[in-house]
Amino acid sequence: DSFLNDPLVLAVERAVRAGIVVVAAAGNMGEHNGQTVVGGIASPGYAPNALTVGATNTHSTVYRSDDSVSS
After folding, report:
1. Tens digits of residue pLDDT in 2-28
2. Beta bridge partners of 57
3. Beta-carbon neighbour count of residue 61 at 10 Å?
4. How far is the CA of 7 from the CAs of 13, 26, 44, 46, 51, in angstroms?
5. Pairing state between β 35-37 and 68-69
6. Residues near 40 by Cβ (< 8 Å), separated by ≥ 6?
7. Is 16 helix (H, G, I), strand (E, B) or coil?
8. b/e string for 17-42 if b means 16 or more Cβ within 10 A?
9. Contact 2, 8 (CB under 8 A)
10. Where does residue 21 fall: left (phi above 0), alpha (psi -120 to 50 degrees), or beta otherwise?
11. What pTM was computed for the model?
């Protein structure tokens, strides 16, 4: 669903308007429809005013192809 209708995103936006800093986990999707997902952001992390944090293991390379979700 669009972030414009997502109840978690709407709650984040209300909280930010009230002066609260909202920190949200980016989410560790790991896999979607059999495909590995690295760097996917889930609700409420995609709220326009959320401070979204996440972590990946780069395995000390510059290539995203070998990145994995941190454990």
Report:
1. 889 999 999 999 999 999 999 998 876
2. 68
3. 9
4. 10, 17, 9, 12, 17
5. unpaired
6. 26, 27, 29, 32
7. helix
8. eeeeebebebbeeeeeeeeeebebbb
9. no
10. beta
11. 0.71
